[in-house]
Design a protein that fits this description.
three-stranded mixed sheet, CBS-domain, alpha/beta, 148 residues
Length: 148
């Protein structure tokens, strides 16, 4: 089985897009990460890493400090994302530009998909054909195939 047969449609974000709009599309598609087209490349921002931009630094440094936030204060998380751009999410990643690509060709094997996810620490991989996004394969899609 190859990446083409496992790929499913996914919205594409661009660096200048608003974070809230892009995240809404990601959530509506049921994806665990955001696919961002940066020039000719595709970068995956895991949904969990969006929280690096949304949470105050002191909470990231000590999660126990999150207890001081009540539910009303938790709305501040959404406000911290307001007006932000997708490029801010990419900048917050612990990503080395020389690191593994977050995209594979349509003929990539299941093992290649697994290797990219594992080495890049991403929950989905962009599947491309001639530089165009064909879709994505999520870790759940991949595990479902491996365990079948």
């Amino acid at each position: 089985m190859d990446a083409r047969s496992l790929a499913r449609p996914a919205p594409i974000a661009r660096p200048d897009d608003e974070v809230s709009t892009s995240l809404a599309a990601m959530v509506a598609a049921g994806l665990p990460g955001l696919v961002v087209q940066v020039g000719a490349d595709f970068v995956v921002v895991p949904a969990s890493q969006v929280l690096r931009v949304a949470l105050p630094r002191y909470v990231l440094d000590d999660a126990a400090l999150g207890r001081v936030w009540d539910e009303a204060s938790a709305d501040a998380i959404a406000r911290r994302l307001a007006g932000r751009r997708v490029r801010d999410l990419i900048a917050a990643l612990d990503r080395n530009d020389d690191g593994p690509s977050h995209a594979v060709a349509v003929d990539a094997t299941v093992v290649e998909l697994a290797a990219v996810m594992a080495s890049a620490h991403v929950p989905l991989v962009a599947v491309t054909e001639h530089g165009r996004l064909l879709g994505v394969v999520t870790v759940n899609d991949l595990l479902g195939r491996l365990l079948a």
